Amino acid sequence: MATIYIDGKPYETKDGINLLDTCLSLGFDVPYFCWHPALHSVGACRQCAVKVFKDEKDTKGRIVMSCMTPVADGMRLSIDDPEAIKFRASVIEWLMLNHPHDCPVCDEGGECHLQDMTLLAGHVYRRTTLKKRTHTNQDLGPFVNHEMNRCIQCYRCVRFYKDYAGGKDLDVFGCHDHVYFGRSRNGALESEFSGNLVEVCPTGVFTDKKFKKHYTRKWDLQAAPSVCVHCSLGCNTLPGERYGTLRRIRNRYNQSVNGYFLCDRGRYGYEFVNSKIRMRAASVKIKGAAPADEVAPELAISEIRKKLNGTHEGGIIGIGSPRASLESNYALRELVGAENFYHGVSDTVFNMMGEIVRIIKDGPVAAASLEDVREADAVLVLGEDVSNTAPMLALALRQASRNAPLAGLAKFKIPHWDDAAARNAMQGEKSPFFIASFTGTRIDDLASEKPYRTAPDDIARLGFLIAHELAPESPGVPDAGEEEKSLARRITVALRNSKKPLVVCGTGPQSIHILRAAANAAWAIKQAVPDARIAFSLPECNSMGLALMDFSSGRPVSEALKRVQAGGAKAVIVIENELVESIGKEGAEEIMSLPCSVAIDFIATRTSQLAGVALPAASFAESQGTFVNNEARAQRFYKVMQPQNKNIQGAWRWLREIEAALGTAKQCPEIDALTAELAKKMPQFAPIADRAYFPPPGFRIAGMKIPRQPYRYSGRTAMHTHIGMVEPKPPSDTGSALSFSMEGFYDASKKQKIPSALLTHYWAPFWNSVQALNKFQGGVGGPLLGGESGKRLMGASGSDPVYFTDIPEKQKAPGLSGANNRGLFAVPLYHVFGSERLSMENPAVASLCPEGGQPFIAASPRTLSALGLNKGDTMGLEIGGTVFEFKTVADEEMAEGLAGVFVPENGNIRADLAGLYSKLPAWARFL
Amino acid sequence: MLALLRALWLILLHTFKKRVTVQYPEQKPYVPPRWRGRIILSRDPDGGERCVACYLCAVACPVDCIALQAAEDETGRRYPASFRINFSRCIFCGYCEEACPTYAIQLTTDYEMGEYRRANLVYEKEDLLISGQGKYPGYNFYRVAGVEIGGKAKGEAENERPPVDVRGLLP
Ligand code: SF4
Ligand code: SF4
Ligand code: SF4
Ligand code: SF4
Ligand code: FES
């Protein structure tokens, strides 16, 4: 701790930070541009000037850039010094010299850091009569709009895009007052984190291109805390609604998870909520007649009752979903009974998830949060292509790759926040970082040596070897080659010498061996380095929640199919799930042809089309529930808006209504009561009822709820008048402490803290931009004042590791040459834009899917030529008895003998392809 | 008693004073040009819609009776796809006009808006948009703004230099 004097008053502050950070953390409004809490200082904009005095006697003082000055005990500074004020006012005046007269048509307006700082620094009147400099714009692709005139040359964009996110195609060009921030030529930004430019740029140069299409000002967006549904990391989001449609998604700060950023899949994946594929009415299929008829909800329920008549004792099976909330899965499990509840995932995924739960629950190494990942200083990635399956994990790994050299800067006395100096001193040095994968990944540039490209089992063997090197009691790999061994030894030395080693793996390669090898490796490292962590990437947003439901007694959907085939079921209820993906087309058809089949989903799927009764569920934006992320952190998402019509309701509510109709009358409680019931019945979920993290519906501050709408929400008395003159009462929300209103408690002052789990937007007096967030943090960049907004369900067990002993054999060399044995090993490939069904409903996301959204097989050029194929040819592969024909793509990085199979998850992909991933990895016969 | 007689006397005197009642509607009272009456949306000197759908009038409105939705034409010019004022709520405070950065929304001298049905007091964009410039002739926001729209490329607005050649190294 240090004591400093600001304008004569003493304050306690943290050591080792800079003055700007200190002043903002203490609540002072010091204007700034180029500094960013995650990107730190470069001193480019000169806006943050304050005056520093030598001692008490010094009255003259000198002006310094607060962001570049380290705090020192006993320091005296002045923010209100007239000279400092004048200096800041003249800096903003320069910055505004060329600024266009755009605010009314600028999408940043109303949440513009430049507007805020202009007012704060006291520049209110344009004195100059000089002509303004102008720039032409570029087309930067479907996500980000470019308006270069508005640039103030703060360099934040390139510092985020290149330095923080590792992008290569955005840069600064030109010289003096002509500097230009853009690409070398028109074209879509390549980084999957490009959307963050919208929040990072303090002006309207980079704005959200999708939001522009249905533009609304920040003050008109109704928002609620939510959780991203497009991968397993559970990034926190703030979706905003206006006039009944979802308009945009913004980052919701959570220090332990996503911090300040989101990936483009999460930011732009929301369009499905508004899209045509939504189910908006209940439908019942009359025998033989297709398509199904739309009916009123009550009719659908009575139809289900009629069909179920008598069968509900053990005759109904329920198929839960890794996409549905804990509450919906639980309601289904209660309705059908635990012994009739099946996990709607393939056998492979089911087994992998079971293993991951055991590794986290029973093993000695804790699962890493994204914050842990950002702090790691040595990394081993086993098999998982994180940039494509869990993008924000890749961004966190990129930060980890700087930690080891950053720690070494202490000897040069360079503080970590002095960004330009630190990067210069590091000279591109990196933390020990090892990658084993099938093919090239977008984090290959982080690797400290050439990534190891090989087949899944060989990746697992590397993990086992490392584990054995570190802990001889873990099983070795007897027939390991010299190359494997020496690589393992190098990795071992690096991991052992680190302070926070991390092993990354996941379900992407669909190899249980890799998961076990990663666990062995992490456990073995833990013997030497206590702070070891393991990070998993999982298939869906609630994969972990579903896996935890019945982690020892659960059954995958294939068991349900067997039961149906054996005649052991008369009815089936499926929630928010595409069965075709987990059990294939035939299997799904067989299950859905039971006398009574019900599908509850928010989008129309093949499964819902097969169902006798289809019920429209609410999407994440229209319902409340709990997801459990990859590190078993339970997080609540709240209703952002009311469903678009009365037919749509949460899956859990449909299930409770069916239950009531069957006479097993449970009251239809509020969602919060259901959550509480679930937490009570299933001890593994007990923390989700913890009121400190998840405030109850009765929670009030000063007797008030927390408003979903900002104070200046406009148009209330005109937005409904095309329907009727009576202004409707705002919907009541009995399930949470949030209100569908602008009235309620909202205050950024540190005295009354809004719980982080209920924070609906960031705003404070003078701070209209997203940087108002500073006011809600204990110290800038630190945890939120309102406490954590999610709770880990399990940590490391503390017991000794029980190493896995099942070592796979070395992958047989594929028999490319022999005429009879034309074998290739088919492995699954993923793409950030393409491998997730819901985000693909946004045409902008779909347009970035590789190979024009067509399935393909990638193989190395050598493999291709051995097969006598050219790139672009159609290749036939027989996988598990089915023949697939895809276009071939030459992939320089692909390991020899592997065939990487990519099938995009868009709505119109052929049904037989939809289940292909559940069969991978597998030997395939080249035809 | 005395007070009563005094009151009667005063009333009698008033019968000889000049009348203030006007024979409305046959006879219209004088309204000053800055009268705050029925609201219109005006056009710029080139005949284009002045409103750029910036939402500032809506947010300034103390009774929240303005609801609009922004849209953009293919050349990048922003305009309101819909614009609605609920006059049954409007208090004719004029804040919207004050907030408007383009002189689009203006209060006029027309106050004859009585209706039997409240719903008739809801004016949509086609009821609001007039064909002239209203009280403030001459101003065209897009001629001043830096954004590119149809018919005005980068650097062609008032007080602008032509776009920078990024590859140029000359000062
Ligand atoms: S960047 Fe900010 S100040 Fe500049 S035009 Fe946009 S809203 Fe106005
Ligand atoms: S484009 Fe935005 S972030 Fe980049 S330098 Fe200009 S103002 Fe700063
Ligand atoms: S005059 Fe006042 S009340 Fe009427 S629309 Fe304008 S701002 Fe709203
Ligand atoms: S303030 Fe003016 S330009 Fe902006 S939306 Fe209202 S009428 Fe249109
Ligand atoms: S914030 Fe300090 S110089 Fe830019």
Structural notes for this entry:
The complex is a heterodimer of chains A (927) and B (171). Chain A is α/β, with parallel strands linked by helices. In chain A, the strands form nine sheets. Chain A has a seven-stranded mixed beta sheet with strand order 16-15-26-25-24-17-18, sandwiched between helices. Chain B has a three-stranded antiparallel beta sheet. Chain B has a two-stranded antiparallel ribbon with strand order 1-4. Chain B is elongated. Chain B has 171 residues and is α+β, with helices and mostly antiparallel strands. In chain B, strand 2 (66-72) and strand 3 form a beta hairpin. The longest helix of chain B is centred in the first third of the chain and has 13 residues, at 2-14. Chain B has a domain at 31-144: 2-Layer Sandwich (Alpha-Beta Plaits). Chain B contains five helices and six strands. The termini of chain B are far apart. At the A-B interface, strand 6 of A face helix 2, strand 2, strand 3 and strand 6 of B. Strand 6 of chain A pairs parallel with strand 6 of chain B, so a sheet runs across the interface. The structure holds iron/sulfur cluster (4 copies) and FE2/S2 (inorganic) cluster (FES).
Defining traits:
heterodimer; A: 927 residues; alpha/beta; Ubiquitin-like (UB roll); Rossmann fold; 5 domains; seven-stranded mixed sheet; 37 strands; 17% strand; globular; B: 171 residues; alpha+beta; Alpha-Beta Plaits; three-stranded antiparallel sheet; 5 helices; binds iron/sulfur cluster; binds FE2/S2 (inorganic) cluster
